[in-house]
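Bench log, entry 3. Co-assembly request; chain sequences pasted below exactly as received.
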Amino acid sequence: EVQLVESGGGLVKPGASLKLSCVASGFTFSDYWMSWVRQTPGKTMEWIGDIKYDGSYTNYAPSLKNRFTISRDNAKSTLYLQMSNVRSEDTATYYCTRALWVPLYYFDYWGQGVMVTVSS
Amino acid sequence: DIQMTQTPSSMPASLGERVTISCRASQGISNYLNWYQQKPDGTIKPLIYYTSNLQSGVPSRFSGSGSGTDYSLTISSLEPEDFAMYYCQQYDSSPTFGGGTKLELK
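Structure output for the full assembly:
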């Protein structure tokens, strides 16, 4: 059974940094692209970015590219999201997803989500 | 970025009713359109990919159609477990989502 379990969320002050983790199980992690998607309190969904199966390539939503960094450790089957200089508008639930490219870009498994609240 | 306009934003409906949710793209997306369901506990699962292909394990009462800029998700006969949020998602150079439709029990 595929499982994606996020952690690392919580309350953080504006301007601070935070690193989210996602531990994957039930599939060969190193064979798949992985992605982060977030959902705001108003229920808007936003794709953050993704990372190639071997970690050699990352792609980001243009509005987040300069502050968010996605990485992975295939030996630990773990995906990461490093958030820097966080703002109140980064308050959201963050989902780790497995991404498929065939026949089109598609998120076939989602974690349960982890909440991040940015507030002073 | 391609903008996705999803309608309606909420929809009261009854058990057994046939419902349709629409998604319109700001430009043609060549059928690169997926649908997801989010339950009240936050669990998200894929329903349909590439406009009309049912994800494994999804009941056949769900179907998708469309082309160009206009796409739709239809549930032929609502079951209790179908009352949830639904999102469309397109892929062009960067994936974007519709605003969501909350399907509520009338």
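The mean pLDDT of chain B is 96. Chain B touches chain A through 23 residues (CB under 8 Å).
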